[in-house]
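Inverse folding, one chain.
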């Protein structure tokens, strides 16, 4: 929450389009994942770009913490 979402070894940050997909993806690494909400509308207004990955996934460059909240 301090540094935001960082792509690390990947080219982009991967974002799930809905909560169910986020939970399924999160459970690959942790039995009780934490789901984060991205204020994508404000991030877009502020100049961040989002790219369509597939029907459930969106891609973005790093997302600063000010756009992130815990669901």
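Residues assigned per position:
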């Amino acid at each position: 929450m301090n540094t935001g979402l960082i792509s690390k070894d990947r080219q982009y940050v991967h974002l799930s389009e809905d909560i169910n997909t986020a939970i399924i993806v999160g459970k690959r690494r942790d039995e009780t994942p934490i789901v984060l909400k991205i204020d994508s509308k404000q991030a877009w207004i502020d100049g961040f770009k989002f790219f369509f990955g597939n029907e459930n996934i969106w891609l973005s460059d790093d997302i600063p913490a000010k756009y992130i909240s815990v669901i």
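Helices lie at 19-26, 40-45. The chain has one domain: 13-70.
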